[in-house]
Amino acid sequence: MSKVLVISTSLRTNSNSDILTEKLIEGAKASGHDVEHISLKGKNIGFCIGCLACQNTQKCVIKDDAVTIAEKVKNAEILVFATPIYYYEMSGQMKTLLDRLNPLYPSDYKFRNVYMLSVAAEDEEFVPKKAESGLQGWVDCFEKAEFSGSLFCGGIGDMGEASGKTEELNEAFEFGKSLR
């Protein structure tokens, strides 16, 4: 099937997004996908300095973990970003990584389908919309790619609470199975 890269952006130990991401990965593997999982925990990812040297060299002048992650993103066919929702938006570390993936813009990237899994204590329908819009904005810069779907799991706030959420765990598994 396809080469899937799942990027977990929560820095919290035993995070709800990580628990649901594991189920998503199980579902993707059950569909025959080759899945690689990267967590941003413990990674050193600096802010983009806007020099735009990467537009000519396809390499970032900042030498940190974002360089290795960008290479994996470039070679994946399907991308999944998992994020907690902070202040109705994606995590800051996810946005920082997206900015640092700028060297991919002029490259021969392989990804075509981009997905998001988001988790929040709030459960209203509008809660993930700004995070989805932010990821859509990034995807819009890559003309061969599209934002292909999102799963929002709301009403989950306490650390590790997702472990006991059978319905959401099943939804994450099915979402993983549905990746195309």
From TrEMBL:
GO function terms (MF aspect): oxidoreductase activity
NADPH-dependent FMN reductase-like domain ranges (all copies): 3-120
Organism, as annotated: Butyrivibrio fibrisolvens DSM 3071
Alphabetized InterPro entries for the sequence: Flavoprotein-like_sf, FMN_Rdtase-like_dom, ISF_SsuE-like
Residue runs in coiled coils: none
Superkingdom as given in the UniProt entry: Bacteria
Classification via Pfam families: FMN_red (PF03358)
UniProt keyword list: Flavoprotein, FMN
Protein name: NADPH-dependent FMN reductase
